[in-house]
DNA sequence: CGCGAACTTGATATTTGTCAACTAAGGTGG
DNA sequence: CCACCTTAGTTGACAAATATCAAGTTCGCG
C-alpha cells in the first residue's frame, strides 16, 4: 500500500526520489494505539512528533462543564503536533477515534529535516498551513451552515482528504466514528445527529453502515453543502505555475 | 508609542537588539487603508505580505447564499498573509473593520529573514501557530458555548491580545466593529447580538459605547466565559525553561 | 443468553432566527 | 444651522432549529 505521508506531501512540494526514500524510512515503525486512548494531552511537552499512519485520531478540548469539541480529524499522513517544537506545550488533547497506528518521530529528526531538507520542510509547513485553512473552513461551517449542510460538507471534505492519501475510493471510505463523536465535531447533540442523518439518508445522499460511509451522489452532496475544496490546497505543485502572477488552473 | 510587532514577537522568541532594530525598520512606512475595504481577496497571489500596524482588519469568507463568516481579527502586530508564500493563493478575504494602517513587506524580504534571522523566523512561526490555536479556540467557542458566553469569551481574548501589543489598558480597548460584524464573527444574527449585549450590560459585565469596550469586572467576565488563555501562548520566552536550542524549520 | 453501549423516537423546552416596525445618530446639502 | 437621508441599533411577535429528557430498540460482545 502506498505511503499516505508521501502521497500527501507531494501536494506541498516537488519531492525528489531521495526525499521520498527519507519520508518512507521516517514513517516506518508505527506502533498500534487502542481506540479511545489519548495520544497527547493539553499541557504536555512531548519529546516526539506523532504521525498517524493508519486509523483516525482527533484533536479535542473539554470545557469545565464537560462539553467536548473535536477540532480536527487526523487521518493517515497527518502530523499530530508538529507545532509543539515552537509552541512548547500542547493547548489541546489528541485522542484516537479507533485503533490507530502512529509513528513517533524524535524532535531532533524534525529539526534535522529543517536544516538539510528544504523540500520536505516546505511540504511540512504546507501541511500545517492547510490544517489552518481547514480549521477556518470548519468555522465557516459551524457559523453559517445548518446542521444538515454542515454534516454534508464534512463528509465531502473527508472524502477528498482520504482520497489523496489512498484511503477512500470514488465515493466511500471507512468512517470509524460514533454519532456522539460526530455531534461533538459539528457542535450539535447526538440526538440531532441521528435525526439529520436520517434526513440525509432519506434524501438519498449517503449511506452509513458497518463503519463505512458511502456518498451516493458525490456532485449532489457537494452542491448541497456548497463544498469548494480550494481551502485544501491540493493541486499538485507540478501542475501549477511555479511563480507568481499566473492564471489559476482549474 | 511602542511597536506592536516587536511587543508581540517578544513572546515567540528571545529577540536581540539587532532583531528589534530590524523589525522596527521592517514595520515602518505604513499606508492608510479606509474602512470597509478589502486588503486581499480569495484567489489572490499577493506579492507582498501585509502587516497591520494600526486599526483592525479581519479574515472572512462569504458563502454562495450571501452569509459571511469572520474567522479572525487582525490587530496591530498581526500579519495578514504570511502563509501565502507557501500556499500560493489566498483561500479567504481580508477586509478592514475600520481605518487601518498596513505595511507591505515584499516576499523576498520575508524569505531573506528566513535565511539569516533565525530568531525572527522562529517568532513569525510562533505567531502563525498561535493564530491556529486561536482558531481552534474559536471553534470550541462556537460549538460549545451559547451566545452570551461566547461573546464574553471573545471580549476576554481581545483584551488580552490587545494588551500584549499596547492597545488596551487594564480593562478597556477601542472596539471599532458594528454589531453586524460581531454577529458574523459569532455565527449569530445581529438582532441576537443586540439582545445578548443588553444582557451582558444588565449583568454589569461590559459597557460598549463610542467605539470602546469596557469590561467592568475582568475576573468575573473570565469566569463567566471560562476563559483560559493558554492557547495564546503568551508567556514571554525568557520566563520559560529554554529546552533544546533547536533551529527553526526553514 | 444477557448486558451495555450506541442509536432511535417522541414529547416538550430553549435558544436563536426572521420579519417588520420603530428610534437614534451621523453625515450631507441647502 | 436645519432638514433630510441613510445606516446602525432596538424592540416585539412569531417561527424555525436545535436541545433536553426519557423511554424504547438494536446489536455486538462476553
TrEMBL record, chains A, B:
Keyword vocabulary terms for this entry: DNA-binding, Transcription, Transcription regulation
Top-level taxonomic group: Bacteria
Signal peptide region: none
Domain HTH crp-type: start-end pairs: 145-219
Name of the protein described by the UniProt record: Cyclic nucleotide-binding protein
Amino acid at each position: 500500500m502506498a505511503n499516505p505521508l508521501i502521497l500527501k506531501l507531494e501536494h506541498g512540494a516537488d519531492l525528489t526520489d531521495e526525499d521520498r526514500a527519507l519520508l518512507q524510512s521516517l514513517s516506518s515503525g508505527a506502533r498500534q494505539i487502542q481506540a479511545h486512548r489519548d495520544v497527547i494531552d493539553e499541557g504536555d511537552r512531548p519529546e516526539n512528533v506523532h504521525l498517524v499512519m493508519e486509523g483516525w485520531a482527533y484533536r479535542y478540548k473539554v470545557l469545565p462543564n464537560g462539553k467536548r469539541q473535536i477540532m480536527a480529524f487526523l487521518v493517515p499522513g497527518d502530523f499530530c503536533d508538529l507545532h509543539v517544537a515552537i509552541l512548547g506545550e500542547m493547548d489541546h488533547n489528541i485522542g484516537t477515534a479507533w485503533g490507530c497506528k502512529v509513528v513517533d518521530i524524535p524532535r531532533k529528526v524534525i529539526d534535522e529535516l529543517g536544516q538539510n531538507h528544504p523540500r520536505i520542510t516546505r511540504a511540512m509547513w504546507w501541511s500545517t498551513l492547510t490544517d489552518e485553512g481547514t480549521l477556518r473552513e470548519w468555522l465557516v461551517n459551524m457559523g453559517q451552515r445548518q446542521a444538515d449542510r454542515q454534516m454534508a460538507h464534512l463528509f465531502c471534505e473527508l472524502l477528498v482528504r482520504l482520497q489523496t492519501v489512498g484511503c477512500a475510493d470514488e465515493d466511500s471510505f471507512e468512517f470509524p466514528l460514533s454519532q456522539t463523536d460526530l455531534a461533538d465535531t459539528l457542535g450539535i447533540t447526538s440526538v440531532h445527529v441521528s435525526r439529520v442523518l436520517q434526513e440525509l439518508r432519506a434524501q438519498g445522499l449517503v449511506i452509513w453502515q458497518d463503519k463505512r460511509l458511502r456518498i451516493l451522489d458525490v456532485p449532489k452532496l457537494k452542491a448541497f453543502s456548497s463544498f469548494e475544496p480550494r481551502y485544501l490546497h491540493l493541486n499538485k505543485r507540478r501542475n501549477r505555475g511555479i511563480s507568481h502572477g499566473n492564471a489559476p488552473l482549474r
